[in-house]
Design goal:
The model has no long low-confidence stretch (mean pLDDT about 85). This protein starts with a helix and ends in a 6-residue tail after the last helix. It has about 70 residues and is mostly helical. The protein has one domain. The chain is built from 3 helices and no strands.
């Protein structure tokens, strides 16, 4: 698979699948556990949620940029 194809696949999966699902999950989680929480609990939650979305993207980057093995 060429690097260009890998980048296309990863970009589509991240933008069309991962981010919308993650946003819905975090919104539902926030709705369920944060009403009435102290400001510092909300702050920690949003810091973690704002950081963890990048984890799968960080795992996809090496795969996208890996050269295809030559036969």
């Amino acid at each position: 698979m060429t690097p260009r194809t890998k980048k296309l696949i990863a970009t589509l999966l991240i933008l069309v699948v991962w981010l919308p699902l993650y946003m819905l999950f975090i919104a539902g989680l926030q709705w369920r556990i944060l009403p009435g929480a102290a400001w510092y609990v909300s702050l920690v939650f949003y810091i973690l949620a704002g950081t963890l979305w990048a984890l799968p993207i960080g795992l996809a980057l090496p795969w996208m940029h890996r050269d295809a093995k030559k036969a």
